[in-house]
Design brief:
- The chain is α/β, with parallel strands linked by helices.
- It has a domain of about 220 residues: Alpha/Beta hydrolase fold, catalytic domain (Rossmann fold), CATH 3.40.50.1820.
- The protein is built from 15 helices and 10 strands.
- Helix 3 crosses helix 4 and helix 6 packs antiparallel against helix 10.
Amino acid sequence: MPSPTTAPTRAATVTPAKERPVTMPPAQKAPVAPLTEEEQGLSARVRKEIERTIQRQVKGLEYITAGDPAVGLTPKDTIYSRGTLKLYHYRPQSDEIYRVPVLLVMSLVSKPYILDLTPGQSLVEFLVQKGYDIFMIDWGTPRPEDAKLRLEDYVDDFIPSCIEKVQEETGEEEVSLVGYCMGGLLTLLYAALNPDGPMKNLACFTTPVNYDGMGLQKTFADPRWFDVDRIVDTLGNVPPEMMSSSFEMLRPMSKSIGQVRLWDNMWNDEFTRSFRLMDRWGADQIPFPGETFRQTTKELMWENKLVKGELELGGRRVDLKNITKPLLHVTAEHDHIVPADASRDLVLLAGSEDKQDIIMKGGHVSLVAGGNAIYRLWPQLDRWLANRSY
C-alpha cells in the first residue's frame, strides 16, 4: 500500500517588531561664562583690525590710482608779475578788514602753496577769514638765466617792488611782513637794511640766523669736501633733487617711516588726505638760484657773517640791531632743517623793544601746515597780528 504523501513543512515567518527610535535624554550643556571685560576688549580690537585691514586693501588701490590733490584754492588775483615772480592778492572773506595789509614771503626753494594747501588746511584761508588783507610773493621756478640772481636782487629789488604794489593796491603806507624759512631770512635782511621803511610788523617762522647751529647741513657743506663753485659753475641753478636729497640725509629713515605710517593709517581718509597733500608739496620742490646758493653757502654757512654782523649786501652792512619794529619769531621744537640752535639768536640780536620768541611743538613743515598748525601757530599769529594791525 503506498505510503501516504507527507505535506511539506512550511517555515514560520517571523515579522520583526517595528523599530522604535530610541529617545536619549537631552545632553546637559555646561553654562557658558560671560566674556570678561579684557576678553571683550580683545574681541573688539580684533574685529576692528580685520575691518581696517580690509579698508587698507580697498583704499590702498584708490590711493595709487588717484591723481594729485588740488592745492592753492583760496581765491586770488595776480596783481603784479615780473619774470617768474608773481604777487598774489587774496580776495577778502570777511566784512571787516584790518587796516595794515600782510605780505607773505616764501622760501626760494619751495612752492608757496604749503601756506594754502586746501580748504580747511590753509593758513592763507584762515587769515583771510579772520579779516586780514593778504598778499603773497610766489618766486616761481627759476629759469637758467636766473642763476645769476643774488641776495641783493631779492632784498633790494624784488621785495621793495612788491611792497610798492601792495601800497598801491590798498592805499596804505605800512605793510606787515611774514616770512617762512628762507623767506624769513629775506625779510630780515630787508628789515635790517631799511629801518625807516614802510614795514609795520615782522613775523618769521623757522628762520636761520646763526649758521653754526645748522648741524648736519653745516657738516655736509664743509668746504673741505663741498665744492660750491664747481656745482654752481657747472649746473647754474642747483637742482631740486640735490636739495631734497640733502634734507633726506638729515633723517635718512623718515621717508620709510612715513610710508609705514601711511599704510598703517590707510583706512583713515583724513590721514591719507593730509599725507597726500604734504607728500605732493615735499616732492614738488624747485631749483635754487645758483649765485644765491653760492653766496649763502660761503658767506652764511661757512663764514656765519649774519650773526657776526659782517654781512654786506650792495655795499651796505646788515645789522640786525637796525630792526626796531615789532618782531615775532616762531621756532619748531623738532625742526631738523633749521634747528633751534640756528634760529634762537634772532630775537636776542634784533633791536626791537616789542619782540617775542616762541618755541612750539612740531617740525619744519608741520609748524605752518597740517592739523597741529591749525591749533598752535595759526591762533598765535592771529592774536599777535590783531593787536598790531590797526
